[in-house]
Amino acid sequence: MTDLIADLPRDDRPRERLLEHGAATLSDAELLAILLGSGTRGKNAIQLARELLREGVADLGRRDVRHIARLRGVGLAKAARIAAAFDLSRRIAAIERAEPQPFDGERAGAMLVRTHSHHRQEHLGAFFLDSRHRLLHQRDIFVGTINSALVSTRDIIRFALEENAVAVVLFHNHPSGNPNPSAEDLVFTRKLRDSLRLVDIELTDHLVVGATSFCSMRQKGQI
Fold first, then answer.
1. For 107-155, what is each residue's pLDDT tens digit?
2. I want to staple 173 with a disulfide (CB 3.0 to 4.6 A). Which of 98, 160, 197, 209 is the partner?
3. For the packed helices 28-36 and 45-52, what is the interaxial angle rounded to 10 degrees?
4. What are the CB-based long-range contacts (under 8 Å, 24+) for 154-159?
5. DSSP secondary structure string, 159-179?
6. Residue spans of alpha helices (H) in the chain
């Protein structure tokens, strides 16, 4: 084999093949050669990659970065790129294994009591859920006066669309400490429910947070 990948026919160069045909068409050695970027005297990147993979790709992934760097022609820079690629793959695998659980209103309400019951102004926010009612994102949206939050249903809808949410659980705290929904809460909740329906998003619940407890408007039959 030639000492330089640049001397290979274009269809045999790993980077060009990846760009034209996709990464799935490359062997482990060819993918690793792209990470290496270059070989060393008398040995191109593919040959060097094959040496690194002599014991298999899993063995390489378990090696310490400095151990990889000791191989002639690798060095710390190439070894760091290899270690970074393996760690990224492990992080992706960990995310995929950690299957999100369906949203739990009781746990969410208890958490909000811990995080929002002390506020002296009303804080209104939302949990944005996917089609399986798994949490996509949580965010505080408005901070109002001690008596009310100046809330725009249009902004809540915009945030839901930005998160690609299929369902929303609204929440806000009552600085008075009383978790019972007010008449204004009921009017606003139904207005938001109806507005969300126009864009095929469900208002699943509205949690009202008091000093030591919370109220689910869904459980009270108010949505």
1. 999 999 999 999 888 999 999 999 999 999 999 888 876 455 567 889 8
2. 209
3. 120
4. 154/195, 156/126, 156/192, 156/196, 157/195, 157/196, 157/199, 157/201, 159/126, 159/128
5. HHHHTT-SEEEEEEE-TTS--
6. 14-21, 28-36, 45-52, 57-62, 65-69, 75-97, 105-116, 153-162, 183-197
Provide the token pair at 96: 């995929």
Structure tokens at 53: 């993979």
Number of CB atoms found within 10 A of residue 92's CB = 10
| CA 148-124-187 angle, 5° bins | 60
- Beta sheet of 123-129, edge-to-edge order: 135-143, 123-129, 167-173, 202-209, 214-216
| Strands 202-209 vs 214-216: parallel, antiparallel or unpaired | antiparallel
Q: Which CATH superfamily is domain 105-216 in?
A: Cytidine Deaminase, domain 2 (3.40.140.10)
SS3 217: coil
